[in-house]
Write a sequence for this structure.
């Protein structure tokens, strides 16, 4: 499983009751510099931290669909999808996702997290090896942990290593999980080559398209762009909360896969159905992606300009990742930018798969030229002020 951080020595708890226990945990977080906060976001900020890549969360068609679905069905689905929680909005959503991605079948989940949890645990068992790229998202790691399978990882995007893991396995079956575009570094998987390695060893490939759908392949996703959408051994998981601007998740693949998940994915069966508003919103968003292809093109233009301003190589997707010399500098610069009205993501160990603290700037299609320029100028100023130039590490994506 991806790298646990080294244990941080901490004085033993004075008491075993909850207050002492929580205080110990808080001290460890403070010492590691990984304390997180939930701050209410001010309006009017420049947002390069969110995942609303196509700015669809505020699109009039998307909002209207959410309102209409709420008025028709109420605020919630009221039950699991297999009890009375399947509504016409779910059927419409699954049809829209099928159409967008070119897949035979779709099953909507309440989030991308539960979709990954569901598919990995439902395809598991003692005779199935789960193989994760080392940079997989926490939801896939948790899905693997929840499975009854042996689990292993291979170095990020290293297909030779994947080949030998699959060749040496003792289990009859194998499921390999990758992301089409990785969430922290923004780099992409070579899906054609990965699928070829999987095919050679009779392994199923699960592709998490959380950062690919709406972004790559004209919005239809990287799996479609690679021509793998009708390969029965390639499964797609999706979130509706990023480029589609809503909330929820889905698994896409064959009708037989949908049937299997519907009957055995615990995070589908024992979870209330996706609420009507986000289901209808995501359905409308799928239509907008296809009707307004210029949005996807604008996103890539913004990503190119943003990467140039930040002095990093442009990534495959919306995420532009800037390595920082230390967790403290990363946090300090993210706060300076925030106080100047620009929000960016700050990722520090243990949340970064490669152990390098990073600022993550996410492009979105409606970002203006002046917002992009402002982000670049503020970053350059902050780096100079923190003397980061002198101590920056030699990693991929250098700061110019
Ligand atoms: C790669 C990846 N997979 C899955 C998820 C989970 O999606 P959701 O937010 O819909 O639960 C995310 C969200 O952060 C993600 O980045």
């Amino acid at each position: 499983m991806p790298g646990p951080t080294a244990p941080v020595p901490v004085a033993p708890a004075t008491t075993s009751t909850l207050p002492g226990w929580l205080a110990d945990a808080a001290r460890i977080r403070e010492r590691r510099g990984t304390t997180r906060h939930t701050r209410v976001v001010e309006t009017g900020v420049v947002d390069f931290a969110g995942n609303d890549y196509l700015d669809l969360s505020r699109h009039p068609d998307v909002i209207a669909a959410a309102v209409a679905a709420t008025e028709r069905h109420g605020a919630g689905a009221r039950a699991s999808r297999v009890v009375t929680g399947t509504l016409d909005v779910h059927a419409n959503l699954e049809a829209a996702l099928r159409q967008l991605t070119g897949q035979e079948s779709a099953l909507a989940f309440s989030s991308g997290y539960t979709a990954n949890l569901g598919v990995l645990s439902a395809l598991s068992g003692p005779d199935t090896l789960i193989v994760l790229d080392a940079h997989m998202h926490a939801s896939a790691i948790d899905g693997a942990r929840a499975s009854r399978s042996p689990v292993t990882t291979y170095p990020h995007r290293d297909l030779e290593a994947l080949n030998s893991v699959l060749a040496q396995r003792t289990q009859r079956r194998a499921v390999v999980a990758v992301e089409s575009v990785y969430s922290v570094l923004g780099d992409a998987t070579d899906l054609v080559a990965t699928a070829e390695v999987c095919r050679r060893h009779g392994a199923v490939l699960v592709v998490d398209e959380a950062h690919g759908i709406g972004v790559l392949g004209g919005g239809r996703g990287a799996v479609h762009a690679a021509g793998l959408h009708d390969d029965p051994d390639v499964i797609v998981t999706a979130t509706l909360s990023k480029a589609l601007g809503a909330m929820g998740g889905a698994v896409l693949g064959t009708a037989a896969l949908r049937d299997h998940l519907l009957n055995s994915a615990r995070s589908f069966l024992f979870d209330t159905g996706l609420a009507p508003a986000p289901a209808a919103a995501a359905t409308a968003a799928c239509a907008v992606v296809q009707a307004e292809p210029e949005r996807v093109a604008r996103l890539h233009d913004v990503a190119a300009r943003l990467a140039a301003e930040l002095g990093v190589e442009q990534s495959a997707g919306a995420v532009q990742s800037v390595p920082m010399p230390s967790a403290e500098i990363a946090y300090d610069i993210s706060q300076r930018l925030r106080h100047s009205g620009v929000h960016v993501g700050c990722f520090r160990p243990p949340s970064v798969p490669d152990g390098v603290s990073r600022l993550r700037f996410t492009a979105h299609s409606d970002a203006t030229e002046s917002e992009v320029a402002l982000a670049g100028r503020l970053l350059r100023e902050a780096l100079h002020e923190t003397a980061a130039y002198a101590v920056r590490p030699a990693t991929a994506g250098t700061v110019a």
Q: What stands out?
A: The pocket of pyridoxal-5'-phosphate is lined by residues 111-113, 116, 137, 139, 179, 183, 208, 210, 239, 241, 249 (CB under 6 Å).
